[in-house]
Amino acid sequence: MTQVERYTWTGHYIHLVSIQLSHMMSGFVRSYAGGGYYRQTGSAAEYICLPPDPDFEKTSGPDGGRMYGAEYETNFLSKDDEDVPCAVCRKIRSTSILMIAGKNKCYNGWDIEYHGYLGSGEYDHAAASSYVCVDSHPEYLNAGVVDTYGKLFYSVLAKSGALQCPPYVNDYPLTCVVCSI
User: Which pTM does this prediction carry?
Assistant: First the structure.
């Protein structure tokens, strides 16, 4: 860390499915989204961003946790079965980063980083997942359309009941926005 970086406020976030970084950002480019296998009950819940240049210290070990690449699983978010890229972004002079589900614009005083649709695993799959904001203009990796499964992305629909309809609408895909301040 340089002297300048030590005294600069920064905010960090993972931008799944896009590799475009503005002049105020830094991060690795063309990384790989990954996570646990969608049908394994013991899989890790969260999606993560893996670097493009992994370091390995051992070549074998006992079987335990597993890491799989991520795919878009429906045509709603992108082409079905395409592999998902990501970037870890650092915004200079930012203290907070927030993902807001159900909005496509930030509230007054916040800066928009990107907007899109809320994504997660499918509700009836065995593995847990997290809610993530999938960019409205998703990109994909060159290997795509192999249908190897792994960690999967589906759009998230609003469901009436305890979730008030209105203002929400049953079975409408939820938007999202990532904001910084």
Answer: 0.75
